[in-house]
């Protein structure tokens, strides 16, 4: 059954879109990432204009992360205080990201920058996580929970001023790296159409040393607001949010997310991280391959504002 | 003494040059003068004046009917009349970019802006265009995909001649006469080939190639048929992603390779139903639309949680 999407201006199969949403929703529930880093490339592979894919991806992410965050909130694995500080940084970053998005699109370099960012971030984070979780799995074969926390070991982050106590996360750190991380997530949300979970989760684990169980809920909580800000800004400035497309993805997404959250509870922290690392790497490699391989058609047509015409 | 003798010679040379220029002007103006001569009258009508794009729109066929009166019966029998019918989508400025390999990755490097590119172009003709009219005439009429004028450079020289395939009321300056001819007219020189057109040409060609591959530009020979000696019909194929806006259906009449006249009718393409409603809100109330999208997402997330409560 095909449906015409009013903003993407293309007619696509409803079931494929709902299925896509469900698959990504499962992953988002499993790992506590909004799934934006998967949904945006998937939409682009499915012929949706990249600008619409980015903005609509942000909209879809809200539903999945709201659903997931609710589940985590009931279980008490959301650090509202940490999430709010992240959020304050995130809102500023989000505005900057959307401005950058508009500018890059006018220059005709948006697609390149989006792909490069994906390759760099996904490749880098995926690689680091894979190495770390493999080590952790080897180390903790005999004992333990698969947590990152190593007592007595502090990174440079813990030496910064303006410290604040986060009870849920059992943390006492400076707000500066938290705000900075939030802003970075916001910028990426604006340009890449992601909630930023795939950056937030590893950064909270490795830089801030937040327990993995709390990280996922907190990340989801923060993503809701960053993605919401991005959606509204994109709709207002670039008119690229396709609400019909987003709704179809959400529909699949919320269903998938429930099963994902369930499955996530049966896996250990290090196993979960290793799986997420593999997934992140795979998406990064796929996008990197596209940049290097010779395109079938080197020419592209756009309107002067950068919209596909 | 010598100076006095030189003078008349110079005048003679000037006179010769202006005579040459005049001859060029006349030959260029030739086809236009022809266009006024024919007695034939020529009207078209569309099968519909509005096309609505609904959620299941999957392309359409447009039938254009036409009547040809006062035609020379002998020429008609010999099939010396040719008719070309086109549907031209709304013209918009467009940027074409070319990727080049830079440090191992493919990056958009060169770009070319075209000021007035039809969003779609469907053509039906009685015979192959090359048999109907000369290349120069096709260029001047902006007829056929390969001779379609895209307005790559703001037209220099005498503007104010609207393109034949452009709505007259718009009045935007547009390459009606091909650029080379227009420059030549302005300078009073014979037509010479322009340098620098080849690089622009590669972008224009790419644009047409991409739009042809998408079905946005198409042309079919033999899809204009005479139903009776005076009545003809043309079938135009419209793609699924037909651009919205005011399209122009235009018919051209040729007699033995000479352009006689043209006539046109507007065709309105608009989104209808739920889609147009959403599109309208997204355009007019961007922020409100964004807030609505967010609320919808939160509601869907909450509702999904409610329905699939698994803990």
From TrEMBL, chain A:
InterPro entries named among the record's database cross-references: TM_pro_TauE-like (IPR002781), TSUP/Inactive_protease-like (IPR051598)
Cell location: Cell membrane; Membrane
Keywords, in A-Z order = Cell membrane, Membrane, Transmembrane, Transmembrane helix
Membrane topology of the entry:
Multi-pass membrane protein
Keyword match Nucleotide-binding: no
Q: Where are the transmembrane segments?
A: 12-45, 51-73, 85-104, 110-131, 171-201, 213-233, 240-260, 272-289
Which cellular component terms (GO) are annotated to the entry? plasma membrane
Q: What is its main location?
A: membrane
- Tree of life domain: Bacteria
Q: What Pfam families does the record tag this protein with?
A: TauE
Which family is annotated? Answer: Belongs to the 4-toluene sulfonate uptake permease (TSUP) (TC 2.A.102) family.
UniProt protein name:
Probable membrane transporter protein
Q: Where does this protein come from, organism-wise?
A: Jiella endophytica
From TrEMBL, chain B:
Leader sequence range is 1-35
For whether the record's keyword set contains NAD, the answer is no
Pfam families attached to this UniProt entry: Alph_Pro_TM (PF09608)
Superkingdom: Bacteria
UniProt entry tagged with the keyword Signal: yes
User: What's in the keyword line of the UniProt record?
Assistant: Membrane, Signal, Transmembrane, Transmembrane helix
Give the residue spans that cross the bilayer.
Answer: 287-308
Map out region (Disordered) in residue numbers.
148-172
**Official protein name in the record:** TIGR02186 family protein
The species this protein was found in = Jiella endophytica
């Amino acid at each position: 059954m095909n449906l015409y999407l009013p903003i993407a201006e293309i007619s696509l199969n409803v079931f494929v879109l709902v299925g896509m949403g469900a698959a990504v929703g499962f992953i988002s529930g499993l790992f506590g990432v909004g799934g934006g880093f998967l949904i945006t490339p998937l939409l682009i592979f499915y012929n949706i204009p990249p600008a619409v894919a980015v903005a609509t991806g942000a909209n879809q992410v809200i539903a999945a992360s709201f659903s997931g965050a609710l589940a985590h909130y009931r279980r008490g694995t959301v650090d509202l205080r940490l999430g709010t500080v992240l959020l304050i940084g995130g809102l500023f970053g989000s505005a900057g990201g959307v401005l950058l998005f508009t500018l890059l699109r006018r220059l005709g370099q948006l697609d390149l920058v989006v792909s490069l960012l994906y390759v760099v971030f996904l490749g880098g984070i995926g690689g680091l996580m894979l190495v770390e979780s493999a080590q952790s799995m080897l180390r903790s074969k005999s004992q333990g929970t698969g947590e990152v926390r190593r007592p007595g070991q502090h990174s440079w982050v813990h030496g910064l001023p303006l410290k604040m106590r986060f009870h849920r996360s059992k943390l006492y750190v400076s707000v500066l790296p938290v705000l900075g991380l939030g802003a970075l997530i916001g910028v990426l949300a604006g340009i890449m159409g992601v909630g930023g979970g795939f950056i937030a989760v590893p950064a909270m684990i490795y830089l801030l040393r937040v327990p993995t169980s709390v990280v996922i809920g907190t990340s989801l909580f923060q993503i809701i607001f960053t993605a919401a800000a991005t959606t509204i800004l994109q709709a207002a400035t670039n008119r690229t949010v396709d609400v019909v497309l987003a709704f179809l993805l959400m529909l699949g997404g919320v269903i998938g997310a429930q099963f994902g959250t369930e499955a996530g509870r049966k896996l250990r922290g290090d196993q979960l991280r290793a799986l997420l690392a593999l997934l992140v790497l795979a998406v990064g490699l796929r996008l990197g391959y596209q940049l290097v391989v010779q395109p079938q058609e080197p020419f592209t047509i756009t309107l002067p504002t950068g919209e596909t015409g | 003494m010598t100076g006095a003798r030189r003078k008349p010679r110079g005048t003679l040379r000037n006179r010769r040059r202006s005579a040459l220029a005049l001859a060029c002007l006349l030959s260029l103006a030739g086809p236009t003068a022809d266009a006024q001569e024919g007695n034939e009258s020529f009207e078209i009508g569309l099968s519909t004046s509005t096309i609505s794009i609904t959620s299941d729109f999957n392309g359409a066929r447009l039938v254009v009917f036409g009547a040809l009166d006062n035609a020379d019966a002998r020429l008609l029998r010999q099939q010396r009349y040719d008719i070309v019918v086109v549907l031209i989508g709304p013209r918009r400025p467009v940027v074409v970019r070319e990727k080049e390999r830079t440090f191992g990755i493919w990056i958009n490097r060169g770009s070319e802006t075209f000021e007035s590119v039809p969003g779609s172009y469907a053509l039906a003709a009685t015979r192959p265009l090359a048999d109907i009219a000369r290349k120069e005439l096709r260029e001047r009429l902006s007829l056929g995909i390969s001779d379609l004028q895209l307005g790559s450079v703001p037209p220099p020289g005498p503007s104010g001649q609207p393109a034949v395939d452009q709505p007259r009321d718009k009045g935007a300056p547009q390459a009606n006469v091909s650029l080379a001819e227009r420059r030549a007219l302005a300078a009073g020189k014979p037509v010479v080939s322009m340098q620098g057109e080849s690089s622009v040409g590669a972008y224009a060609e790419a644009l047409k190639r991409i739009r042809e591959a998408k079905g946005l530009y198409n042309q079919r020979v033999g899809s204009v048929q005479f139903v009776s000696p005076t009545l003809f019909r043309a079938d135009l194929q419209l793609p699924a992603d037909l651009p919205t806006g005011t399209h122009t259906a235009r018919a051209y009449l040729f007699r033995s390779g000479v352009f006689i006249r043209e006539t046109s009718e507007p065709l309105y393409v608009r989104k209808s139903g739920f889609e147009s409603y959403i599109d309208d809100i997204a355009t007019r109330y961007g922020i409100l639309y964004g807030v609505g999208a967010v609320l919808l997402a939160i509601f869907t997330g909450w509702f999904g949680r409610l329905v699939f409560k698994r803990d």
